[in-house]
Amino acid sequence: MPDATAPLPSARTSYDEVPYESHPYPQAHPSRLAVIATLFGLTPPAVETARVLELGCAAGGHLIPMAAALPNATFVGVDLSARQIADGRDQVARFGLTNIELRHASILELDDSYGTFDYVLCHGVFSWVPAPVQEKILAVCARHLSPYGVGYVSYNTYPGWHMRGMIRDMMRFHAAKFAAPAERTRQARALLDFLAESAKPGTELYPALLKKELEAVRHQADHYLFHEHLEEVNEPLYFHQFVDRAGAHGLRYLGEARVATMLSGPLGPDIEKALKLLATDQVQTEQYLDFLRNRTFRETLVVHARNVPSWQLRPEPVGRLHIASGAAPVGTEAPDVRSDAVVQYRGPSGVALSTARPLLKAAMAVLADAWPATVPFAELLSRSREQCGSTEGGENDARGLAAGLVDSYLGSDLIELHGVPVVAQRVAGERPVAFGPARVRAVQNRPIPTVRHELARLPDLERRLLPLLDGTRDRAALTEVLAGEVATGRLQLERDGRPLHDPTEVRATLTAILDQALASLARQALLVG
């Protein structure tokens, strides 16, 4: 295998000039991919000890938090940008990780020396590279996936990208007059603003469609806008074309990372009935769904062709999974989990679920007590039965609860299913410990990953507090360090709208709010001890 410590060549790419801010993608975590393979009747490799390869890893923002959370797994990232790989290696060294290697290499250079991997990830690359590299990505999935491994590839799709591609063409035409990436991006934004002001929806269809697409593009970060819309290559394709090309490499379609997008039910019974007449298989069904939804982007999972998924979801596989829920009951009264009274729960995105089933209501209470950590299904079943006083048979309870969890997982964000446990502290200990990558990234003022493989958005006090949580400081020591930050002007505290400077007032205020800040970090899955 290539030497990961070798000096980096000096050849530059556009990603060296404008680095792409890499960060966690929860839907592309092997734990989530394993869930989908499990639900569809396959037996994916154990995530805890998996070998994971990411093609186009940038600075490792997706891989590094996984390596920190899964010390018995092995991670390899490959990227053509020397600048981003150097940044990623610096992060790895700061975290002291030994189970991850970031390699400066072209995807075209991957050979048998890399070995096999249980999960191959390729996010935000396929549509943005020439056809030979696209074919190599599929070849890597076919050649380097272990027998029951899962590959993840994201790409832009038609028909949605026909309209978005038109806006990209407009931006590239205007930005081509300028050389510097920053100026090209600024000018592209100026054109978007001009178009948005001009596209006033009226009776004509074009202005309405243009306005909708412009709003989807205008507020993206500069690095995203530059690489998504101003790069030379951006080649969308239809979903069925991707499946055919994957099939030519001996790969079979498994499903989507966001599995709910595979369902036709949300469009209504008439559409669902018509699709059953039009489509002969799952691939055709989803292609028609793309037509109906004007889809622009997919995150597709593939497996070796000999592994045949069953898309008829059954509840039994849930018994091998770990469950989480951040949903809360609507209203101020605690739900009666022993009655048949209907209770409504609302998830983080606002989607609601109503149920009268005592066992499912009890399970929601157990999950709320554990949040943001997961609960293994067997434990969830046992504790839920105890709370609601169920007298049903164990098998009936297990099947009923699993079916309710799957329905909620597919229909909303109220239930999460994970292939491995999410271990996070609900309550800060005497000497709190924060997730290692989060501590380092907070110091660097960069996006902060959580144990749940998401990004945390923190106010200044919590961002300053986070790096201090290495297990060596109790609350008194934390207060003293933060008071020093206030004294030097690096942290500002206010009371009733006025800045605090008096040391006595500062310490009193910090003492009063420290537990609240720690509780906020715990809720966001940033504490591990």
TrEMBL record:
One Pfam family cited in the UniProt record for this chain: Methyltransf_25
InterPro entries listed in its UniProt record: CFA/CMAS (IPR050723), Methyltransf_25 (IPR041698), MeTrfase_reg_dom_prd (IPR018773), SAM-dependent_MTases_sf (IPR029063), WHD_PKMT (IPR048976)
Give the UniProt keywords, A-Z: Methyltransferase, Transferase
Disordered: annotated segments: 1-23
UniProt keyword Transferase, yes or no:
yes
Which positions fall inside the Methyltransferase regulatory domain?
222-304
Presence of the UniProt keyword Heme in the record: no
Query: What SUPFAM superfamilies does the annotation carry?
Result: S-adenosyl-L-methionine-dependent methyltransferases
Q: What is this protein called?
A: Class I SAM-dependent methyltransferase
From which organism does this entry originate? Gemmata algarum
